[in-house]
């Protein structure tokens, strides 16, 4: 080909590219204008694939016609409303028919039960026929089937509670078979409303058969939840999980109070089985369906609650403690497996494991309170706070430290009411708190030091070293713990006024020494240095405001002289440290 023809070809290609660029620029401006004028436009329904255009793009492209915005929610469309209202009215008609048959003495009881079963079967069959013949009438088929199963439940109730054809266990077993059939059909149709209706219908009708919240009712709803678990896990139906789990929790809660009026030796085991299975089903749901994590957490929190009440209310102290400890061990085992076993580390979501740990902490606290007398609650909780702090430091888990902090807070306030009341520090004629006060004060001081130190060491929260509320709370707890332990030790030796004055002298000196230790350690650690300065100010305030007014004679002289000499010595030592070591943050002061 000659050179001029090649130049012509390049010019043609350049012209086509320029034209394409202009069209793309125009399309971009049109799309920007469309997005600015209609930002929340409902996307159009997918249309049939169009044939590729045979002609070039028009100079003014046509806009896609969007589907009008729906003003009615999908669940409130007229077809859905009519179907479910029709099902409810039909069910009421079945109830009225049964009542009228009894009042008018139509036929015999056997014929009434058989007729009710036949009517329920017809409704279910009609639902199946509509589902097969008219796929667009899916809602109507589900409503018909749900109404049929509800009518069948009522027929079982009539045969058991009204006519006595079946004993209560057999009636519940028949109802469970009906529920399983409904769940199978719902799974086959992939219809969650049908499954929810079947489960709720069974749970509502069951108390009519048992005539009370006894172990038989709890066992039935537990089996119902177990039967619904495979379907809800397979399909990921959060609504079905709640519909099956909430009746179990409610039945166990009511059963715990029912046992106070009607004692039953198998009631508490039934409640415990319900709690354990609820926890296991919640864990399985969270593992297989991470999208339903919130539902699993809700079931996890609610499932053990009845057992926490039933144990102390219906059992002796030793048995109640064993049940609470067993639940705590189960939850701790699930948490440990999910955190440290490689096969399950990626299976259970992190938030679910955090919820498991929180419920385990609650279960442990409940077992502790059940096992101890009220006067020893604070000591027990503070001991557990110290143990959890050590575990959190070793395992490097911030969640464990959070549980330790909860135990520490509750233990501190309980100690204020029992072991170390503030009156023991202010009144000289108050009786000593004894060994319990000494132990509680030492535990408060130990937790106040260990908990924030472990939090800083594991470094899970970046803002922890600069958290003023945390360090202020820890400092106040440390001051109160050391003061209470010192006073309790002095009053153990003698309950005279001299022992009271000696205790306050030692408290002041102890605070001063502690402040100096923090200052010396805080040469390179800013928050410790600030804590030392604050504690020095608090010690001086106590010396001038409380000791000066309370102490008298020789005790006052000893307190002021010792405190002054200690401060002078510390000042000299602190100055020497500053000359030896350059402080990194000196410019910030």
Structural write-up:
With 589 residues, the protein is mainly α. The chain is 78% helix and 0% strand. Helix 12 (317-340) runs antiparallel to helix 14 (350-371) and helix 18 runs antiparallel to helix 19. The protein is flat. The termini are far apart. Keywords: Membrane, Transmembrane, Transmembrane helix. Residues 49-59 have a biased composition (Pro residues). The chain crosses the membrane at residues 81-101, 113-131, 143-163, 169-186, 193-209, 215-233, 240-260, 266-288, 295-315, 321-340, 352-371, 377-395, 400-417, 437-456, 468-494, 500-520, 532-551, 557-577. Residues 39-48 have a biased composition (Low complexity).
Produce the secondary structure layout.
Elements (H helix, E strand, L loop, with lengths): L2 H35 L40 H27 L4 H25 L4 H25 L5 H22 L2 H19 L4 H21 L2 H24 L5 H22 L4 H10 L2 H10 L2 H24 L1 H4 L4 H22 L5 H19 L2 H20 L5 H4 L7 H25 L9 H26 L3 H25 L4 H25 L3 H27 L9
Helix pairs in contact: 2-4, 3-4, 4-5, 4-6, 5-6, 5-7, 6-7, 6-8, 7-8, 7-9, 8-9, 8-10, 8-11, 9-10, 9-11, 9-12, 10-14, 11-12, 12-14, 14-16, 15-16, 15-18, 16-18, 18-19, 19-20, 20-21, 20-22
Structure described in brief:
Residues 49-59 have a biased composition (Pro residues). Keywords: Membrane, Transmembrane, Transmembrane helix. By secondary structure, the chain is mainly alpha-helical.
Q: State the order of secondary-structure elements, H for helix, E for strand.
A: HHHHHHHHHHHHHHHHHHHHHH
Low-confidence segments, given as residue ranges, are 39-77, 582-589
| Main sheet characteristics | none
Percent range of helical residues: over 70%
């Amino acid at each position: 080909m000659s050179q001029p023809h090649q130049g012509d070809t390049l010019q043609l290609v350049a012209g086509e590219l320029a034209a394409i660029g202009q069209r793309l620029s125009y399309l971009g401006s049109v799309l920007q204008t469309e997005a600015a004028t209609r930002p929340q436009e409902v996307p159009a329904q997918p249309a049939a694939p169009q044939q590729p255009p045979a002609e070039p793009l028009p100079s003014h492209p046509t806009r896609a016609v969007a589907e009008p915005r729906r003003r009615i929610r999908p669940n409130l469309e007229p077809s859905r409303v009519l179907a479910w209202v029709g099902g409810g009215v039909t069910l009421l008609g079945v109830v009225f028919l049964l009542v009228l048959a009894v009042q008018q003495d139509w036929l015999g009881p056997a014929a009434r039960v058989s007729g009710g079963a036949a009517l329920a079967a017809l409704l279910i069959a009609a639902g199946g026929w509509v589902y097969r013949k008219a796929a667009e009438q899916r809602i109507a088929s589900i409503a018909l089937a749900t109404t049929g199963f509800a009518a069948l439940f009522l027929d079982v109730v009539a045969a058991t509670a009204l006519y006595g054809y079946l004993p209560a266990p057999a009636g519940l077993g028949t109802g469970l078979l009906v529920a399983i059939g409904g769940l199978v059909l719902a799974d086959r149709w992939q219809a969650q409303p049908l499954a929810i209706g079947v489960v709720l219908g069974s749970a509502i009708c069951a108390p009519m058969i048992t005539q009370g919240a006894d172990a038989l009712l709890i066992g039935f709803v537990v089996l119902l939840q177990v039967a619904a678990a495979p379907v809800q896990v397979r399909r990921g139906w959060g609504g079905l999980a709640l519909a099956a789990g909430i009746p179990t929790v409610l039945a166990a809660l009511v059963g715990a109070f029912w046992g106070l009026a009607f004692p039953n030796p198998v009631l508490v085991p039934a409640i415990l089985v319900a709690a354990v299975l609820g926890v296991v089903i919640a864990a399985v749901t969270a593992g297989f369906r991470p999208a339903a994590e919130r539902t699993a957490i809700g079931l996890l929190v609610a499932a053990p609650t009845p057992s926490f009440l039933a144990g102390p209310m219906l059992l002796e102290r030793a048995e109640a403690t064993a049940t609470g400890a067993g639940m705590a061990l189960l939850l701790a085992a699930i948490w440990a497996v999910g955190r440290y076993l490689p096969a399950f580390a990626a299976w259970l979501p992190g938030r679910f494991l955090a919820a498991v740990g929180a419920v385990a902490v609650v279960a442990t606290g409940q077992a502790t309170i059940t096992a101890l007398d009220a006067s020893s609650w604070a000591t027990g909780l503070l001991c557990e706070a110290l143990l959890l702090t050590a575990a959190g430091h070793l395992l490097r888990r911030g969640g464990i430290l959070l549980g330790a902090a909860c135990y520490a807070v509750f233990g501190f306030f309980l100690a204020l009411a029992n072991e170390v009341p503030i009156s023991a520090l202010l009144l000289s004629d108050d009786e000593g708190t004894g060994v319990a006060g000494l132990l509680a004060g030492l535990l408060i001081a130990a937790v106040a030091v260990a908990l924030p130190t472990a939090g800083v060491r594991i470094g899970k929260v970046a803002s922890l070293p600069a958290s003023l509320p945390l360090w202020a709370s820890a400092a106040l707890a440390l001051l109160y713990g050391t003061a209470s332990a010192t006073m309790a030790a002095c009053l153990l030796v003698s309950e005279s006024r001299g022992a009271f004055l000696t205790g306050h002298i030692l408290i002041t000196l102890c605070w001063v020494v502690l402040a100096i230790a923090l200052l010396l350690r805080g040469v390179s650690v800013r928050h410790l240095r600030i804590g030392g300065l604050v504690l020095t100010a608090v010690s001086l305030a106590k010396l001038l405001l409380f000791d000066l007014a309370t102490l008298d004679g020789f005790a006052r002289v000893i307190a002021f002289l010792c405190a002054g000499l200690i401060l002078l010595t510390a000042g000299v030592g602190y100055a020497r440290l500053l000359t030896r070591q350059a402080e990194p943050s000196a410019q910030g002061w």
